[in-house]
Each structure stands twice: as structure tokens, then as C-alpha cells.
């Protein structure tokens, strides 16, 4: 029989134990981890070996694309082994607790630029993504006409935000480089600047290069980091200007009067540039600075209180007023552009939550990826969630003036509006956007919102996850599993950024209506033929992909509508041209119509041939539908390459 | 420790001035890239940053802010040059020169200009480390070259383009017929041209090699009514109609 005193000591209340355990895991305890090791020299040997590893990985990625083009089965093996070789050693090293600041920074730049390289070698001689074509066409127009604000029928909002095209033009004009090379150079610089600015921002907020580096790695797990933010598209510039403004503001937070006003001058320049570059990034900057000003106003204690509040308030005023003034000056095209996407996305998500009937788009099968990619994505989301759970209260505690050993008192401080730094509080709260963005991504209609939200939300996610990793997972003495497991988790998160970046990141064979997977040399050569033999500027209509090629390589006036209110999809669909459609076509000023017979070989991968808002097609369009123009008097087939046909419509309206 | 002098501003002004001269008189891609790219990304921004008197604590911070200020100067330049109707290569060079010089003058006159941050000491590299890094650069560059070569070499679709146009240069009474091959081997064709059902011209045994383009201008009688001209391409090897294109011949 056991002694009574022994029983009493070992008797544990399970509820209390569970609470204690949960508190230890998710609680605001910062005492178990020291943020930074004593500074030390960068290890050049490691850096050199990692450079060679990354270069070898890039060679494998290139081999993967080459094999993918030929439909070889080894393509995924080459490509993914390249990606793993690229991400794993660099991330494992960068996430180590004892590392020099310079080495961490070098590895972050190396990883970011290598991932950018992976995006560029998908199409190493030309833009390929849908958005890249839209901005490439605008930049080409600007370079040719040497005038801003030219209309862009494929992206009506584009001319209002010409920042990216202006910079591309400056490089082309000063250097004489072709637009693609100039654009790629600009994007490579932007990628490096983004990582540098993000690191500086986190470092100013947390005071720790180790947390900053881990936060940057966690940011790379964002679905838009690898491809979307590396595209020749206005968001790639917008997010850089946005993070730069945050970094300058955060770095100046402890400055006194005049130096802080000087920093405000730079912030004003950045915000003004942002206002004319990208609407969503400008909106996010406005939300961030607005919320920061509100938190500063709410905050009870703080040094330089009045002056700090005034400067933060001024910054918020600039961040909010400049984009609004720009929109007012150039007409509000924003509501028409973003409104329908936001409305449908929210309606669908709410419908799913309350069980209401959902739009037809939701009944189509989701676009599928290989199982390995999906598992990596799921694991990355789980690890991010775990990082957020363990980092949330710790991150808030970092903002508390009570110090590292305050425990839940730190949270009490925050609830009493008593914090050291409003930025940490704001970013921690913004991390709630992560589950919301994941929820949006679960619906077809809301996917776009969830994806775009991620770009901004991951700044907050990066901070909270990094605090969780450093202060809980790595702990005070990061040895054994504490040294390895968090670093492995970060590699999975970065790999998740690659797997979520694209439906199929390996260059494969042509696929029907699949954006970049539908762009190949035959379509490009046909578009070039139109420029060579028909001249530039003819009014063309075609499917979504060929419209892009005609407008970019062919320099044609590619139209989405054949007449006011009549989208071109209407004349392509149906085995016969109805009297209304024929009348509209005859009354239109469309010169040529391009038909791609490859559309009839498979259903559209993305669900639509012409426009995202048309009814989603589960079956392919028929050859008879596409060839019906052969039988119409006044329309002649002037070009045929066996797959692509060009019809001359001018005989229909008497111009020929 | 910072850099106490204004030598950096002098260098920036000289750089900007040289860029203007080179853009005005030289077409060398290498020279213009070597001067123009830093102008867009660094030089003007550095001068603007110094003019604003923004204090930076590290080289990374200074570099990041410099790029940001340069991007802002470039975007501002787009609007200014557009308003002045001077969106040309020379216009850009003059803009960056003007921004750099004006900012440098403001910076020089500043009494409270902060020192530049100290540049970090270069990492000590051993010979084998330097060699490995050079090898890495070579492998990455070579891989890119391979990617470019592979993209140019590989074509998923093999095809023959065939077309007929009313006329190549707008004159009436002529048709332009063309064939271009993107096949893997040379192909032989017979070509027949018919106007309103009547044969107009025939070309036998045209051999088109991969990459070759064959075109002919064919005179056609112009009538008071619109005529339909049709070109038919036959493959003698299997004696079947391979392609058919048509156009309308406008009336007088």
C-alpha cells in the first residue's frame, strides 16, 4: 500500500493539468526562448556550399521544365528534386538559432532570388502569365506611343495605375534592353528589395534578426510569393512600395522630432508612388496605417506620446488620402473592377457557412493537383496554424511593457490599452486574416479574394509564426529536436509556398484554356503573322488566350466585346449563328476573327474559354460551333494552319 | 563610422551627367545598361535620400531605402515627362540627371545631414570558397542558357501556314498567297487558285522546307462585282485537299 502523503502529492486534477499544458503551449510565456544568439561571423564555407547546392537545384528545375515540355515521366522527379534541393538546405541553415545576421540575410536573398529564377525559367524568353500579358501590352503601348493613360480594353483599370509600366519604360529607354529583359531585371531588383524591406520591418518591430529571418521564411509560404509577386504585374511593385513604407515608418518609431519628419518625407514619396501603382496594395497600406493611428490613439502609455501620435496620424492621413485623391482624379473604375469579385466571393463564402444554395461555379469539380503537392500544402497550412496558435499570445506579450516574465499579466496590459509598440499589436491581430483567407480559398468564387488577401496577411502571419518558433518551439536551449524540428517545419512551409503558387508549376504540354499552359510557339507565331501580313491595330476577337497573343505579339486591337453589351463568347457558342448574333456581328467594326480548333479537343481547364464570368463549361466546345463561320456569306477564311483559322469579317459589313 | 564628405554626391552627379551624354550619342547596349540600370535603381534614390536627410542605421537599410526612393523618382518622372511631352530616352536621362543634381545640391546645403552608414567589412573568402561560388554562378547561368535554347528548339505542334490576302500593299487587282512551314521535314504541295469557280493559276510541286516561306503576288481581273478567290493546297503524296483559304476581291 502506498503512503498517504505520496498519493496526495501525485494526485493531479486532469482539468487543471490540461489548462496548465494549454497555457504552457499557447500562453504568453516569453521566458523560454532568447531571441538572438551572441553575434558571430558569417560562415563563408557554408555560404559557398549552399550557393553551389542552389545552382545545382536550378539546373534540375530547368531539366524538369525541359522534360515537362516533352511530356516525359521524369519531369516531376527532376523539378521537385530541384525545388527540394533549393529550399531544404537553405531554409534549414537560415532558421538555425546561432547564425550571423549577415549570413541569414544572404541566405534569404539567395532563396528569394532562386525562387524567382524558378519562375522565370518556366518561360525564359517572354512573359507568359495572363496578368503579365496585360501589363506587357500596356508597357509596349507606352513605349510605342510615348503617352500615358492609353486605353487598355483587356484591363480597363490598368491605365489608372501605370507605375510599373513607367519604370519598365525608363529602363528600356535608358538601357536599350528589350521589354522582357528590362521587366525581368526590374522584378529581380524588386524581389531583393522586398525581402530586404520585409527583414528590416520585422527587425525594427522585434529587434531580433533571428525572428526577422524566420518571419521572412514563413512569409515565403504565402501562395503568392513564388509566382504572383514575381510577375510583371502592378502588385509586384505595389507590395514592395507598401512594405518599404512600413519599414521606414517602423525604423523611425523611436526617432525624435526632426529626424522623424524627414522619414515621413520618404514615406510620403513611397505612398504617393504606391497610390499610382496598385489599388489593393494602396488600400492595404491605408488600412495598416489607419489602424496603427487608431491603436496609437487608444494606447495609454508611451514615450513621445503626442508627437508620435501626430506623426502616425499624418502618415495615416497620407496613406488614406493619396489613393482616394488619385481615384477621384482619374474616375472610379475600381468599383466596377473589384466590386463583382468581392461581392460574389463574400456571397459564396457566407452561403457555404449558412448552408444556402451556392452559385453554379461551386458545383464544378475543384482543379486538382498531384497528391504530393496537396499533402505538402495541407501540412504547410497545419504547421502555420500551429505556429499561429503558439505565437499569438507570445507575440502580444512582446508588445507588453511588463517584460518577458510577465505571463498572462502581459495580456492584461494589452487589454488595458497599455503596450510598447502598436505595430506588434496590429500585426498580431491582422494574423486573424489567415483563417479567413484559407476559408475563401475553399470556394471557387472566393479563391481570388483568399489568394490576394494572403499577400498582405502573411506579413502578420510571418511575425506571429516566427515568435512562436523562437519563443516556444526552439526555446531557450535549441538542441536535439528543438533545433531540427522547427527548421524542418519552416522548410515545409516554404515548400507549401511553391505547391500553392500554381496549379502545375512544371512546364507541360499545351492544355486548353489553362492560361500559361495554353501559351506555346504556334499561337505566338500566328499572332506575329497577323502583324506581319495584316499590319498592327486591326480589330480582332478570339478566345481569351489568343486575344492576349494577338494584342501582345500581334499588336492588334483585341476586343472582348463585338458590340456594346455583346461579348464575343456569344458568337462562338452554338452550331449556328443566330439572327441577333449575325446582326450584331454585321453592325460591329470587328475586322477579323480568330478560331482555335484546339479548344474543341478538351473542356477548358479553368472552366471557361472566353471570360471567367461566363457559365462554366464541363464539356468541350464542338468543332461545328467553331467552324460555323465557313458557311456565312461575306466571311472568308484567309488563314489556316490546321489548328488556327483567321476569318476576314470585313466582307460582312462591306469594308472589303 | 560614416563617410563625412560629399564625394558620393559628386559621383552621383557625374554618373547622371555621363548617362545623359551616353544616351544622347551612344547606342551601345552594354554601356547604356551599365550606366542606365544603376541610374534607375540606385543613383537618383541615393541623392534623394541624402536630400531628405533620412538617417539609416545599416548598409541594408540605406540600400533598401535608396531603391525605394529611386523607384519613386522614376514613377514621378513618368508623369512629369508625360506632361512635358518628353517621354523619350533623352527625356528620361535628363530627368534622372535633374533629380540627382537638384537633390545633391539640397543635400550639400544641409547642415544636419546624417552620415552614411558604415559599409560592412567584406567576408573573408578562402580560395576554394571563391571557386565554388564562381562555379555556382556558372552553373546557374549555364542552366538559364539551356532553358533559352530548349524553349527555342522544342515545338509541340508541327504545322503549315497557308494564307490568301486581297493584296499585300493595298493595291487592287492582286492577291497574295503564302505558305510557311513549321514542320519537321520538307513537304511538297500543289497549289490551285480559283476565282468565282474558274481556275486562275496553278503551281505544281512546291517544296517547302521547315522554316521556309513561299509567297506570290497573283494578278486578278477586277470586275464591277465582288468576286470570291479561293486558294487550295493539295498534298501530292496522298492526293488530298490539305488546306483551303479564300478572300474577296473588291469591285472596281
Question: Key features?
Answer:
heterodimer; A: 656 residues; mainly alpha; 2 domains; five-stranded mixed beta sheet; two-stranded antiparallel ribbon; 7 strands; disordered N terminus; B: 252 residues; alpha+beta; Immunoglobulin-like; four-stranded antiparallel beta sheet; three-stranded antiparallel beta sheet; 46% helix
Quick synopsis:
The complex is a heterodimer of chains A (656) and B (252). Chain A is mainly alpha-helical.
Commentary on this structure:
The complex is a heterodimer of chains A (656) and B (252). Chain A has a five-stranded mixed sheet. Chain A is mainly alpha-helical. In chain A, helix 22 links the parallel strand 1 and strand 2. In chain A, helix 4 crosses helix 20, helix 8 runs parallel beside helix 10 and helix 21 crosses helix 22. The mean pLDDT of chain B is 91. In chain B, strand 6 and strand 7 form a beta hairpin. Chain B folds into two domains: 103 residues, no CATH class; 91 residues, Immunoglobulin-like. Chain B is 46% helix and 25% strand. Chain B starts with 6 loop residues before the first helix and ends with a strand. With 252 residues, chain B is of the alpha+beta class. Classes of the chains: A mainly alpha (656), B alpha+beta (252). The interface between A and B is large, with 94 and 96 residues.
What is the overall pLDDT average of chain B?
91
Strand order across the largest sheet of chain A: 2-1-5-7-6
> Hey, roughly how much beta strand do the residues of chain B contain?
15-25%
From the structure provided, what is the oligomeric state, counting identical versus distinct chains?
heterodimer
Shape descriptor of chain B reads elongated
Helix content of chain A: 55-70%
From the alpha carbons, calculate the radius of gyration of chain A and give it in angstroms. 27 Å
Q: In terms of per-residue confidence, which ranges of chain B show pLDDT below 50 for 5 or more consecutive residues?
A: none
Please report the number of helical segments of chain B. 5
